[in-house]
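Hi there,

I know you've been waiting on this one. I reran it after we fixed the sequence typo, so this is the corrected version. Both the input and the resulting structure follow.
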Amino acid sequence: MVKILAWIFIFFNVYMGGNFFLNAIGILQDSKYGVGATRLYAVLLLAMAGASVYFMFVKSNAKMALWIGAGAWVLIFFILLANMIFGKYN
């Protein structure tokens, strides 16, 4: 069950990270976030997906891969929360 959830997070992180990446380089134009946030989310999601794949294949540690995959979304949540608290809405 842990391996299935880890793979779901990996595929979703790659999909969303790729979407943010394509928005950051200008191929897609459907991002609702700023340029800096879009780039940050692209790097964060793709890096965490890469780390999860590393732990799944090289280390054979599905539990760590799952934690890393879910950790990307926890980090994004806190980034969005901090942006809402400290952002200037004029």
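Quick highlight: The mean pLDDT is 91.

Best,
R. S.
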